C-alpha cells in the first residue's frame, strides 16, 4: 500500500487529527522498512504532531532504537523541542536510551536546554524530574 502512495506522488506529509504523519506513526510502531521508504521518498523527518513531538521522539519513547538512530541522521538538527520544551535528548536520557543520547550528542545536541518544567538531560538521566513549572 505504501508503494502505491509513493508511486502516485501522494503527499507523504499529510496529517491526521492528532497531527501524526505516516512517518511519525511508522516510527512509533516500529515499522523500520516503512520509515526508510518514507524518508527516501521525501517524507519530512522533522514534522511535528500537535504536541510538537517528532518521529524521533516517538521512536525513542517506544524503544525503537534502530529507527531512532536512523532518524538522528536526518537533517533536522538535534535540538528540536516539543510544545513542553522537551528535546529528543531529554527523551533519550529519561528512558535510558544511551546509544541514542550519544548519537544526538555527536550531532551537537545541547544537553543544557531546559524544558518548561526546568528539566534537563543531566537530571533526567538520573531519574530526577520536575513536575511543576520552573520559576
TrEMBL record:
Keywords: ANK repeat, Repeat. It holds the Pfam family Ank_2. PROSITE patterns: ANK_REP_REGION (PS50297), ANK_REPEAT (PS50088). ANK repeats lie at residues 18-50, 84-116. The keyword Repeat applies. InterPro entries: Ankyrin_rpt, Ankyrin_rpt-contain_sf. This is Ankyrin AnkB. It comes from Pseudomonas amygdali pv. lachrymans (Pseudomonas syringae pv. lachrymans).
Amino acid at each position: 500500500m505504501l508503494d502505491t502512495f509513493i508511486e502516485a506522488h501522494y503527499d507523504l506529509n499529510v496529517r491526521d487529527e492528532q497531527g501524526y504523519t505516516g512517518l511519525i506513526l511508522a516510527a512509533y510502531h516500529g515499522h523500520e522498512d516503512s520509515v526508510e521508504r518514507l524518508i527516501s521518498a521525501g517524507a519530512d523527518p522533522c514534522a511535528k504532531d500537535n504536541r510538537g513531538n517528532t518521529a524521533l521522539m516517538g521512536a525513542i519513547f517506544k524503544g525503537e532504537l534502530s529507527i531512532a538512530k536512523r532518524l538522528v541522521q536526518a537533517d533536522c538538527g538535534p535540538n528540536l523541542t516539543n510544545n513542553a520544551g522537551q528535546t529528543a535528548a531529554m527523551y533519550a536520557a529519561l528512558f535510558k536510551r544511551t546509544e541514542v543520547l550519544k548519537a544526538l550528542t555527536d550531532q551537537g545536541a545541547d544537553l543544557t536546554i531546559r524544558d518548561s518544567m526546568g528539566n534537563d538531560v543531566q537530571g533526567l538521566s538520573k531519574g530526577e524530574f520536575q513536575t511543576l513549572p520552573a520559576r
